[in-house]
Amino acid sequence: MGTLVFAMLQIADRLVPTRVFGVCSLFGATMNALIPAWPHRGVLILLRFLTGFSLAGIYPVGMKVASDWYRDGLGRALGWLVGALAVGSAFPFLLQQIPQSYRALLWETSALACMGGLLVGGLIPNGPHTTTTRDNNKKQQRPSFDPRVIWKLFSDSRAFRGAAFGYFGHMWELYAFWTWCPVVWRAYLEEERSLESSFWDENVITFTILAMGGLGCVFGGLASVRWGSAVVAFASLSLSGLQCLLSPLYFRYTPPVVMLISYWIWGLTVVADSPQFSSLVAQTAPAENKGTALTIVNCIGFSITIASIELLGIPLGEAYLFLLLAPGPLFGLVSMRHHVFLSTSSSSAEKKNQDDDKRNVQETAGTRIESEMVMKNAT
């Protein structure tokens, strides 16, 4: 709901994004910290709703802030940002191993959210590529409100649609995999009763798998500098989709160490494409609508996530659950195929033109030198 409202009102583009981030962080942290004070169910639901609503001003707006600072190397910058998100998403599974009350946990996370909001809102200025700037008269210049902007984003640009639909396929898989990973591992470990080490706990294992995603995002971001965001996203989505298809084999026929290594690889690839899709969305959207584009794509993506998480609750053996996620990567790959191959061919053509220009310059220089030598000998 929050991302839908933020996208329709174009808040990330019409207001200063760092301030939006700071205010939403503080508001969400406050709502989260108030939960222990009102144990009534109705109030609890309202506070959780408001906490979730405030996230609309954090995740997509945070990517907008990054895109305002980085035009070149945006995939690398978002790789670090989403990598931090992946590691942060892993921590609740680790915190379950620490004996503490739920009140302490809520207050700890609220304090961290406040700290992050104050850092971004108070210390980070607008980036050089922001569309919300000030002119010489110090008057705020904002993009005008356009109720048709969301429709225009999807209808006017094939490249944007390819990036957005690829992201939607990725989101069908990502959070359902993260959510159901401990369930699958619990079922697997129950069949492997010989494992007695405390490491072989589904929550500890899930933490390591999700934390590997942080490395995957960083590695993918570095790779995007050389090969481009589209190629990295396509390769990562292909690998994670393949893991969906192989998951029954891992569950039925591999020993625990092999199963764990396979899921670590899956954890690396399942989220490594996320920052690259966001980079493509930001790059293919009009500069004045980057924040709205990121927000609406994020909104639709998380709506799809709810459906895939619920789908995996059907009565099906844990060994075969993740087969239901395979259509997501397949849809994403098909959706962005033109985007990837056209961008690759365009890059090749551009490189060829650069080589031809360089060769022409060298030939022209050589001809000029020869002419000068002939004239010099003639005199």
Task: Summarize the structure in words.
- The structure is a single chain.
- With 379 residues, this protein is mainly alpha-helical.
- It is built from 16 helices and two strands.
- It has helices at residues 2-9, 11-14, 17-33, 41-54, 59-69, 74-95, 102-123, 149-156, 158-191, 202-227, 229-253, 256-272, 274-284, 290-311, 327-335, 337-378; strands at residues 133-134, 140-141.
- A two-stranded antiparallel ribbon has the order 1-2.
Q: What are its keywords?
A:
379 residues; 16 helices; globular; mainly alpha
Topology:
Blueprint: H1 2-9, H2 11-14, H3 17-33, H4 41-54, H5 59-69, H6 74-95, H7 102-123, E1 133-134, E2 140-141, H8 149-156, H9 158-191, H10 202-227, H11 229-253, H12 256-272, H13 274-284, H14 290-311, H15 327-335, H16 337-378
Helix pairs in contact: 1-14, 3-4, 3-5, 3-7, 5-6, 5-14, 6-10, 6-13, 9-10, 9-11, 9-13, 9-14, 9-15, 10-11, 10-12, 11-12, 11-13, 11-15, 13-14
